[in-house]
Write a structure and sequence with these properties.
Length: 235
């Protein structure tokens, strides 16, 4: 079996895991209690009361849509609520909605945010659910660490801009074939393509060269080969 075939079969494994998570989401009770508006908890510091109230109204609307299994609308309400108040319970319920929308990267992101202040804003049971889900997702997703030091180079992942160098990008991505490219005027583009398997961690350092640099390198390589062959053939 080739690496690409293995990636495909494990990609199907991710789909199965997401289906299990989606089914488990119905058992992982959403947070329905009010969002302690006006409290002095760490996640409420610096958030005006009217912003907290606006977030809570949208949070309750999202809960209604989640209860009705209208997941797109539920996620939309939760995202709007987060613009008013970055509350762990909103992140948690948003993750429950996203589990049903095949968005594992976003699920991981929001569960991680939900756990940012420990069990208190969720309760111990939901906190453990979040921890377990994320641990499982991390085994089914791939991790990339992309770095480029060439000043002004643009780095993309599957055609989407990541950063302008010098810079670094570290994140979870879906397993499968990915294309990471760095390009800059006056330099030949550098592309790295490889299948990433579930649980795999890949470190990619992208370097760019001018056409003259590549030509000089090839000339040195061509001149070196005969001497190498001759040296190997000497008894």
């Amino acid at each position: 079996m080739t690496a690409i075939q293995r990636g495909g079969s494990r990609g199907r494994g991710l789909a199965v895991v997401l289906m299990c998570l989606s089914a488990s989401a119905s058992m992982a009770q959403r947070v329905d209690k009010p969002l302690d508006v006006g409290g002095d908890r760490p996640w409420a510091l610096g958030v005006p009361r009217d912003e907290q109230q606006a977030a809570q109204a949208l949070f309750f609307e999202g809960n209604e849509r989640l209860r009705e299994s209208v997941f797109v609308e539920a996620s939309r309400n939760y995202r709007r609520a987060l613009r008013h108040w970055n509350h762990p319970a909103i992140h948690y319920n948003l993750a429950l909605a996203l589990m049903n929308l095949d968005q594992p990267i976003e699920v991981h992101k929001h569960l991680k945010a939900a756990m940012g202040h420990g069990p208190e804003p969720l309760d111990a049971g939901r906190y453990e659910h979040a921890r377990s889900y994320n641990a499982l997702l991390e085994k089914q997703l791939a991790w990339v660490d992309v770095r480029c030091d060439q000043e002004g180079a643009v780095v993309t992942l599957n055609g989407q801009a990541l950063f302008t160098a010098p810079g670094r990008y570290q994140a979870l991505i879906r397993p499968g074939m990915h294309s990471i490219v760095a390009f800059k005027d006056g330099y030949l583009p550098t592309e790295k393509r490889q299948p990433l398997l579930p649980g795999e961690k890949a470190e990619l350092h992208l370097e760019l060269f001018t056409e003259d640099e590549v030509i000089r390198y090839r000339r040195r390589w061509s001149a070196w080969i005969p001497w190498t062959v001759l040296g190997v053939g000497v008894v």
